[in-house]
Structures
1.
Amino acid sequence: MSPIRIAIVGVGKIVRDQHLPALAANSDYALTAAASRNGVVDGIPNFKSIEEMLSAVPEIEAVSLCMPPQFRYEAAVTALKAGKHVFLEKPPGATLSEVEDLAALAASKGLSLLASWHSRYAPAVEAAKAFLAGTTLESVQVIWKEDVRHWHPNQAWIWEAGGLGVFDPGINALSIVTHILPRPVFVTAATLEFPDNRDAPIAASIIFSDSEKLALSAEFDWRQTGKQSWDIVAKTAAGTMVLSEGGAKLSIDGALVHEEPEREYPALYARFAEIVKSGRSDVDLAPLRHVADAFMLGKRKVVEAFYD
Ligand code: NAP
């Protein structure tokens, strides 16, 4: 089969860090064009907008939409109406309803839509899922604490309504949790801390439960300096499982049982090629639904103003 002619839209940090290397290393793709108001990709035709790009390069078969979530829906509709398969960076959109709308549009046109959750492809995630499937869960604690000044310097969109604030990294944890737990969970309480001068939270504390009254808590905080934490700790009948470093390492009772080199974006693009070739979509909204529920149920606390 000839490579999928793919274009990138919204050339920024994640495109340079991950999408371009993953596409260059995958013979299932031919990177054909890019569209971005300011960013450019060397060696291919570049355009200022998706509309201009799709009309100038009609042979494009698929697009990766990598702009911030508040601006993704319009681009996705444009691409689907033009008959292109669509890869959505995470989070797949600014609301649940708009992503459901895209899924329906893709289905009506026989096109593939991927709501990508890169953290689900972290190296130790499948091993964690297999471990939890074979034991009884007692409690789960998610600790996702990082320094926003280091990871998101001067990203204005992330602090605006729809930018999700600390849920931008937090949703990565939720994408793992919803994949590895044996049963669905739901939010029962939350507290969201909003800086006085921002429309998105800098920290969130969330309690979840399930039909078996599982105790699951999540602490997301962007004010962490020093050691960064991206850990999921599960107490089980077979010992304490720690999935650490964002899903890269798995330990049971302190013994490292799984560690492999990082391969999230190569695996995501392999998944996208697979669904395009088989005429399917992959749109799991569970992580975004939990974020929406935390906003719906959460107490709001105003904290000190944040400046980059
Ligand atoms: P970014 O660099 O701030 O934004 C990506 C690009 O989107 C920008 O360079 C900009 O390009 C375009 N853009 C910005 N505002 C726009 C607007 N109003 N309308 C249209 N395009 C706009 O952000 P990023 O870090 O790459 O993140 C983009 C997405 O990837 C987010 O959803 C994020 O959650 C996800 N992601 C990021 C990371 C990470 O480590 N940074 C990791 C995984 C996933 P132009 O100015 O050229 O249009």
Note: DSSP finds ten helices and 15 strands in the chain.
2.
Amino acid sequence: MAKQFDVLNPATEDVIAQVPDTGKDEWLAALGRAVEAQRAWAEFSPRGRAEVLRAVYEKITARTDEFARTMTKEMGKPLAEAKGEVAYGAEYFRWFAEEAVRIPGRLGRAPAGNGDIAVTRVPVGPVLAITPWNFPLAMATRKIAPAMAAGCPIVVKPAAETPLTMLLVADVIGEAVAEAGGPKDLVQILTTTDSAGLSETLMADERLRKITFTGSTAVGKILVKQSADNLLRTSMELGGNAPFVVCEDADLDLVVECAMQAKMRNGGEACIAANRFIVHESLAGEFTERLTQRMSEVTMGNGLDDGVTLGPMITAKQRDGIAELVDKAVAAGATVTTGGEVPEGKGYFYPATVLIDVPADAPILRQEIFGPVATVTTFADLNEGIAAANDTEFGLAAYGFSENVHTCHRLAEELKAGMVGINRGAISDAAAPFGGIKQSGFGREGGAEGIDEYLNVKYLAL
Ligand code: NAD
């Protein structure tokens, strides 16, 4: 029998499935089939492609419960959040179904009057997508949907921790494509424990024309270097270290609500999770008290159980990394106001935790936490608050809160990130361009911009 690997439930540590551990021959064969699929897909009109995407949206939505349960079992998030991700992940198919028929071009007279300049857009070619475990559906659909809409075949390598949701989505896409008479290998999923081998092999093959990656900055840099040999198009959605700046005149009721959203969505295992709460000193005491209260009310447990609002972390390694960041901060002088202790028993759990008096050089303020831990630091003057917010190598998301329109404008202008939420704790939207600057990478997913990542500009001199 072909090689397989285990998939675990992080809440129970039980093996819940085994999936194929594919190797080099399978990867290269998949790329060959992708090339063929592009030819067949090119025969579809933009409207024809749009209708297939729309069908995928309908089919995922109709199977929300099955998708959500699979996701909770392999990833751990509470079922209600998993259902939220199904809606969000499916939305990329609806959005890009609508974009597939709006790929822009232009025609203009050449300045010298000796002809016309026509600009059109053509599919990049076969795409490799490598995705993380934190949003097993949405991190892939925001790549698959625009690739399909643009006319590109795509091979997806999901994280080894969470391949099941992706295998389910492949079934649904396969069904929709087949019903329309399209190529069955337009979207292929390759599960493997050898991620590095897969990316090296496929990126060395000149039939591949694009790599799109969501994951850590360290791996993103390796892939960008590897992409140089064949000068592949690249999109890199990497790590974050989001600041959450609370100004003197902010509305604390709103702030606390948004703080819980920005911190606790996905148990903090989100690249746009607020890592650093930077609060004006006049509000810091009350903010900490109210945040501590809300965090201590979080119910930790198996995501399939009713009432659970915080599931396990994905692996023991991830949980231990969070515990280490907290312990180092405490050793350096920080105080825990709630949480901070790894519970006994099965499952990779870490509790909702708040830390105050964190020294400016503590690693927890520098690195992505990727867990349910909030750090609170203070500022006296907004210049100082904004400088602290921007004092990070990352630039994915930032959040700012004020009731003064001039201060809001200033925060929007001066917070250095690809995405800024003003008086908002939840910013993700399939219709908006998601992506970062600095060590958070480049490229955008979603919005009108998302499809450009899969199109080459072609100029026709007429
Ligand atoms: P990771 O970089 O370890 O893994 C991501 C993917 O890359 C997985 O599929 C993994 O198997 C694969 N991979 C690992 N090493 C590889 C290698 N050498 N070559 C090729 N592929 C390799 O990241 P993770 O721990 O799974 O995910 C968490 C990270 O993802 C965080 O840093 C988070 O901020 C980031 N993330 C970013 C976004 C975004 O849109 N910017 C969204 C979600 C997560």
Note: The CA atoms of residues 27 and 198 lie 7 Å apart.
